[in-house]
Amino acid sequence: MADDYGDESGPAMITGRHGDKRRDDDPLDQVQAGNRLWWESTPMSYDWRGETELVPLSLEWYEEQDRRSAEVHRHFATDRVPFDRLIPYEALRDKEVLEIGTGSGFHAELLARAGARVTGIDLTESATERTSKRFELKGLPGSFERWDAEQDRAEFEGRFAFVWSWGVVHHSARTARIVRNIARWTTEDGAFAGMVYHRDSTAALVALVRDWLIRGNLLEHSLDEALWRGTDGYTARFYPADQWRDLLLGFFSDASVRVTGHETDAVPLPRGLRRKVAPRVSAGLKARILARAGGFVTFRADRPLWAGPA
Ligand SMILES: C[S@@+](CC[C@H](N)C(=O)[O-])C[C@H]1O[C@@H](n2cnc3c(N)ncnc32)[C@H](O)[C@@H]1O
Description:
This protein is an alpha/beta fold and 310 residues long. Helix content is 36%, strand content 17%.
């Protein structure tokens, strides 16, 4: 039962892709080494059930990955262009934009096609290669390299009008340090937007039930450890929306957050049962559940504090 939650439209966090996981008391350098190793050996994929037979890094494979990503995010992140409810494409033309944690380069391509001058960093060689290859195949301009966003970078200082990071910074050992760096790297009137995992979510509840009750680890694992054991990556923090906003406000003048998630978060049942129940749940109720208990906190933070009050 434990691995029956995910499906082709389900979040990676409850598909049961579990490798080695962080322990609560691991030193943070070790956590970050584990983080890198995990993503090098398990690069981000939107083919959650391993269905595709396309050759990785071929043009057809990128198109298939993009189709899957656009589809699973469609109901909350897309109007016409994928993620246009969250990325201000029109304002980014000719602007310097940074993506942190590029994965296979889906978002980086969208930013480049909007006319932004895109720089991308990722902790892993595998993601850097996937993103660079995508841009090469499609003849797009962009600059990509392996870099840990926890590490400051002098030539990034005050440079980017927009920093984007989707599903990345909560996987790092020192998330707050990344937010500090991003604030340093944005222009005076720059912004940082993206998504982190949401603690008050049905997805977190499912992970807790599985780890604490079904697997019997209630006395062994802290709440945090139970959560990151139930998700993708070597480690992951789950934030109450207000606490994520509070962290952003430590480094930016203004910040807003919104709870949302994959449609499967609205009916968090094993796949077979969900297929029967989901059609009976009204669209209005699903929307209310997602706004209260979806698996994602999407956010936007404006104007780094170093630039002084607006
Ligand atoms: C869940 S994937 C998301 C990829 C992409 N943003 C997407 O939505 O498809 C997380 C990515 O973040 C990268 N990552 C994790 N920690 C990082 C860090 N400290 N600095 C840069 N990249 C990091 C991983 O290597 C991995 O490629």
